[in-house]
Structures are given as structure tokens and as C-alpha cells.
Design brief:
Strand order of the largest sheet: 1-2-3
Order of helices and strands: HHHEHEHE
CATH topology: Rossmann fold
CATH superfamily: Vaccinia Virus protein VP39
CATH architecture: 3-Layer(aba) Sandwich
Radius of gyration: 15 Å
Oligomer: single chain
Strand content: 5-15%
Distance between the termini: 25 Å
Structural class: mainly alpha
Largest sheet: 3 strands, parallel
Helix content: 55-70%
Shape: globular
Length: 105
């Protein structure tokens, strides 16, 4: 198989798979930042770095259910999410305020 020969199929399969599990994925990861203080600390450092360097906007590429995007916004970062899966972006919009989030074409 040549490299890139089935890219469209792969993208559609990936999108469909992510759409299928979007709600359960969001539920499973809902409290992860509370359970992973090192991740929260890293995001605080990142937010401080963004603020120190003039602010955003910051793109959360592959935002999934939007938990990182939402956390960055709570830290005052002008963040928005982008994901391949419209289902993930829909869940993100329902579970967190992600103005400007969108799915990739």
C-alpha cells in the first residue's frame, strides 16, 4: 500500500470512531484534571507563559471533549478547540463553554 493511498478512508473511520465514543469519553475524563495535579500544574505554567508573552489566541488542536480548552479558558487564556470529530466538538460545546470550537473538514 502506498503512503497516503487511503487517507480519506482513514479520516472517515477515525471521525466516525470518535463520534461514536464522544459522550462516554467526555464522561470518563470529566474529573481527570482533579485527579492529575501534575497536569493542572503544567497547564497553569503554560497559561502563565501565554500571558507573559502577550496572550492568545491558543488553539487546542485535537481538543476532543474540550476539557483542556475549558481549563485554559478558566485560567484566562483565549483558547479555542479544533477536532476532527464533529461529535467531540458537539460534546465539548455542551459540557464546556468553547466559543469558536469547530471540527476540521
Amino acid at each position: 500500500m502506498a503512503i497516503g493511498s487511503n487517507t480519506d478512508d482513514w479520516l472517515q473511520d477515525t471521525r466516525r470512531s470518535c463520534d461514536t465514543v464522544a459522550a462516554s469519553y467526555a464522561e470518563q475524563l470529566r474529573n481527570l484534571l482533579d485527579e492529575a495535579p501534575e497536569e493542572s500544574a503544567f497547564l497553569r505554567l503554560f497559561a502563565d507563559l501565554v500571558h507573559t508573552n502577550g496572550g492568545g489566541p491558543v488553539a487546542d488542536v485535537g481538543c476532543g471533549s474540550g476539557r483542556i480548552t475549558a481549563h485554559l479558558r478558566q485560567l484566562g487564556v483565549d483558547a479555542f478547540g479544533i477536532d476532527l470529530s464533529p461529535g467531540m466538538v458537539e460534546v465539548a460545546g455542551v459540557t464546556t463553554p468553547l466559543s469558536g470550537s469547530n471540527s476540521a473538514p
